[in-house]
Amino acid sequence: MEQPGVGRINSNENENASEKKKMSEEFESNTIMESLIDMPLATLDIKEEFGITDVAHKNKESSKGNEQVRKDKRKKRKKKDYQPNYFLSIPITNKEITTGIKKLQNAIIEQDKRLAKTMSRDGSFHITLLVMQLLNEDEVNIGIDTLLELKPLIEEILQGKHLTLPFQGVDTFESQVGFVKLEEGDHIKQLLEIAEVAKRTFQEKGILAGEDRSYNPHLTFMKLSKASWLRKKGVKKINPKLYEKFINHRFGEEMVYRIDLCSMLKEKQSNGYYHCDSSVVIGDKNGSEPDDAELVRLSKRLVENAVLKAVQQYLEETQNKNKPGDGNSVKTEEADRNGTENNIRK
Prior knowledge:
Region (Disordered): 1-27, 57-80, 315-346
Shape: globular
Subunit structure: Binds cAMP-dependent protein kinase (PKA). Interacts with PRKCA; only the cytoplasmic form is capable of interacting with PRKCA.
Protein name: A-kinase anchoring protein 7 isoform X4
InterPro entries: AKAP7-like_phosphoesterase (IPR019510), AKAP7_isoform_gamma (IPR052641), AKAP7_RI-RII-bd_dom (IPR019511), Cyclic_Pdiesterase (IPR009097)
GO molecular function, one term: protein kinase A regulatory subunit binding
């Protein structure tokens, strides 16, 4: 027979457990968001630079068990949890382009020195191909593997040809973000195809990737959000007069030879470029000339190989010295040599 109040106590316990579970889930979700927001780049700054919206994307179904599990987990995330923190980057390294951008930036700063804080840093110039959310090391590793799988798909689109991006003119997004424009041409169609294939490939791996708005490739050179205090000074928009001399300026052409998986939040490299977890080479830069990043990786491999070879040689020598009978072998060799010399004398 059930004791008076026992049913009510069990009911309360179940309600408390359910409430605790709900609070735990909310705490976990809030912790993820706080960790992203508290990183070096402000959320608003990230959104404006990478064109991010707070809308989650549904992923395509897959027959693979593990991938389906990952997808299901990601689908359960609320829309507010989709805060991209990684992106695919096409680095802009042509000195003609970067020098032209510096001239543009300096021309604007000469007219209003306060805008110096709004300029993109040297070495950080790039075109964003795709934004995504990678919350832990496992997801970053999935992103790295997916980028490798993306390489042949991109090469299939290019059909053995190089993708060259010509830049000409200047424009803004709602007078808040200044960017150098891409010229019209077939290269934009190819770039859009690559962006779509990248989005589909990453989503098929269960990664939250992409955005709601249409893809608009651009080369950012300044953002008012980098100096939010300017609003208090009355600077709320980028005045077109500041860059009118560059409206039709031709900055040059960039040959796409590399695509990087970069972090929006991790500390940038010493050269100003973003933290890069992985890269794929699409074509040779300037023919067969390797880029700086490739030279650094090559140097590291050479050093590692040299150290490994030295360690192996040391271990082999140590093992040979410690082998039983080594001392006797030396003595025997000396005895044989002495015997040979005595026979010669005779």
